[in-house]
Design goal:
By secondary structure, the chain is of the alpha+beta class. Helix content is 12%, strand content 30%. It has seven helices and 32 strands. The chain has an eleven-stranded antiparallel sheet with strand order 10-11-12-13-14-15-16-17-18-19-20. α4 crosses α5. The longest helix has 22 residues. The chain is globular.
């Protein structure tokens, strides 16, 4: 039934590492009456020791909702972490709706997949992709397809210097090939079909997208025509707002428009498209599949994780910012730019696509995670969930609209590669500070007063979200959480406007911007006049020895890098309230980095930041105060600063 109004749902099963194992369908008129419904079941999922998929079964039907059958009975073959073959044992008539085994005839002779030296997929014989070329950022620039049966074509891509996609050109094969050029301009999408004009198709708004409308229909029909220089007329007289409902992962589930402007939605004529997905992102068939004839077919390609589905050449790939993803096999086509020591290099969504999203293709991140009081799950829950999956922390590489640079320095130290990056919210610090506001209240936490944040308090707070975790795990979680809290606080309050990070990280990465140095080869490009080095410590001891070692590393790296003399730098140390930095560190920094030391750096300032906290609605709110090393009084807290809520 194309207007099926029954509720559908899944019940999920996971292994002890929180990896997805099966999804059993349910259906009913309401939540209390739902019963088993296997039409879209996914099961028989297994993994190798590196987390690579070994088997996956997927049930499904056609658009007419005929009795369900096996879409896929998949088995995977690897060389190390490199996928070489996928075989589909399904003989059902619906087998090609899921994974299409286009190379089964030659499976014993040729591998399905081949790769370049960087681990990028260059050949996919199941989809008849013969050649794929990549640029220095491991982004595809050219794709050719030829099924040897009359169907062929090519794709060309153009990017800017940092890897943002600017243009895609699709040319089909044949005697009279047609070319379709799609251009991307900061959310505005244009398309030129053959010899037609290059027209605006749509641009996004926070709840969907906007498309041009036509005067001839009273503003209710879309129009992508533009100004006619000959007649002086234009068909574009306004814009129409299309709204979209997205689920917790950012998947587009429903697109609708109030075409008649009556303030309500008529399901029979104003629903543009309804989309429902299997785990790992393949779209389901068999119910509510109609796409309105009034749909913007370009805008409606943005679906799973809010990413564009490329259907050209029958690739059916989601083109994330950093690499492409195949929902039929549940794997990325390239190497993960963020190293995971517990799983393979092309594993998607940490093998839990019900909880994790990955719209950038860089790394799985908990949905809608933000700082302060914005919507989303608490970071502790994200971390505890990730600990249960064998990973210590979350690497959300999506930073607003900017991705973590992929062409970073030669050495990436452990703390940097493990730093958590959540979407940031930038704001300006308020002015007109009152010095009286800097004092810490000495009252009880129950009424919202501030108290010093010590390691014991932080670890106790984290432990409630990780029942049964070891002491080492809790300490590590607390340390990562503390670093992220200071990072968010610094960004929200514009503390380091002149800060420049080491080249392997985004400018949104504040803590440990250059700490625990492991190689001098990446120091040269990052040092400049007025550079600020930030070191965050959570050990419940005097951190002097570690910080002196950090200063020594800076001095050695500066010396061997051949930098000019007397480059001014600032050093910022961040510790918990029960840590302290002695006056000797300040003198040691000046002596070691200044003219009496190696003669390269000149210490201009040494700061020390410490936190305070209070409980608010069950969550911990953190504020940071600053003092210089020479001032052993209380840190100066600003009541007007933007606080961070864990």
């Amino acid at each position: 039934d194309q207007t099926d109004k029954q509720l559908r749902g899944y019940s999920y099963v996971y292994d002890p590492l929180n990896r997805f194992l099966e999804a059993k369908g349910q259906k009913g008129n309401n939540l209390s009456s739902m019963s088993a419904y296997n039409t879209h079941d996914v099961d028989n999922i297994s993994y190798d020791l590196n987390g690579n998929l070994l088997t996956l079964d997927r049930m499904g039907t056609n658009v007419n909702h005929d009795p369900a059958g096996d879409w896929d009975l998949l088995s995977y073959t690897y060389e190390g972490n490199r996928l070489t073959n996928v075989a589909d044992a399904s003989q059902h008539a619906f087998a090609d709706f899921g994974f299409k085994d286009g190379n089964d005839v030659n499976a014993s002779l040729n591998n399905d997949y081949d790769y370049d030296d960087n681990g990028n997929l260059i050949k996919d014989l199941n989809k008849h992709v013969q050649t794929t070329s990549y640029n220095h950022l491991d982004l595809p620039t050219y794709v050719s397809m030829d099924d040897q049966q009359g169907s062929s074509g090519t794709l060309l891509y153009v990017y800017d210097a940092v890897g943002t996609k600017l243009e895609k050109t699709f040319t089909d094969g044949g005697i009279n090939p047609t070319t379709v050029v799609t251009q991307y301009a900061a959310g505005y999408v244009y398309q030129k079909y053959g010899t037609d004009p290059n027209d605006l198709q749509f641009f996004p708004h926070p709840e969907g997208y906007v498309e041009p409308t036509s005067a001839s229909s009273g503003g209710n029909e879309k129009s992508i025509g533009k100004f006619n220089a000959g007649t002086g007329q234009t068909t574009q007289t306004g814009f129409r707002y299309v709204y979209q409902y997205r689920d917790h992962l950012g998947n587009v589930r429903l697109s609708y428009v109030d075409s008649d402007g009556n303030g309500s939605i008529n399901p029979s004529g104003e629903i543009i498209e309804e989309s429902h997905y299997y785990p790992f992102g393949l779209k389901q068939n068999g119910y509510n599949n109609n796409i309105s004839s009034d749909a913007n077919l370009v805008a409606q390609k943005w679906k799973y994780n809010g990413v564009e589905l490329n259907e050209d050449l029958s690739l059916n790939l989601y083109e994330m910012e950093m690499r492409s993803y195949d929902p039929a096999i549940g794997r990325f086509l390239g190497i993960d730019p963020v190293t995971h020591h517990s799983q393979g290099t092309s594993v998607a969504f940490d093998n839990n696509p019900i909880f994790w999203a990955d719209p950038s293709g860089a790394d799985a991140a908990a949905p809608n995670s933000t700082v302060a009081a914005n919507k989303g799950l608490p970071k502790e829950i994200q971390m505890a969930q990730n600990f249960g999956m064998g990973e210590h922390i979350t690497h959300g590489a999506q930073l607003g609209n900017n991705s973590v640079p992929r062409d970073g320095g030669a050495a990436i130290n452990t703390e940097l590669s493990n730093a958590m990056h959540y979407p940031r919210v930038f704001s300006e610090m308020r002015a007109n500070h009152n010095p009286d506001d800097y004092l810490i209240s000495n009252g009880s936490n129950d009424n919202g007063d501030w108290e010093p944040l010590t390691k014991r308090v932080l670890v106790d707070y984290v432990s409630q979200y990780c029942t049964g975790c070891s002491k080492e795990a809790l300490n590590s979680m607390a340390g990562q959480l503390f670093e992220q809290a200071f990072s968010d606080f610094a960004l929200l309050n514009n503390l380091f406007l002149g800060y420049r990070p080491s080249p392997d990280k985004s400018e949104s990465t504040i803590p440990d911007g250059y700490s625990d140095v492991t190689s001098y080869t990446n120091v040269g490009p990052v040092i400049y006049s007025g550079h600020n080095f930030i070191e965050v410590k959570t050990k419940n001891v005097t951190p002097d020895a570690q910080i002196r070692g950090f200063i020594n590393e800076l001095a050695i790296m500066g010396k061997v890098s051949g930098l000019p003399s007397n480059i001014p730098v600032s050093i910022t140390f961040v510790t918990l309230a029960d840590n302290y930095v002695t006056k000797g560190v300040y003198n040691y920094a000046n002596k070691t980095l200044g003219k009496n030391g190696y003669g390269v750096f000149k210490t201009s300032k040494v700061d020390h930041w410490q936190p305070r906290y209070r409980m608010s609605q069950g969550s911990m709110e953190i504020d940071f105060g600053r003092r210089t090393i020479l001032n052993f009084g209380r840190p100066l807290y600003n009541s007007n600063s933007i606080k961070v809520r864990l």
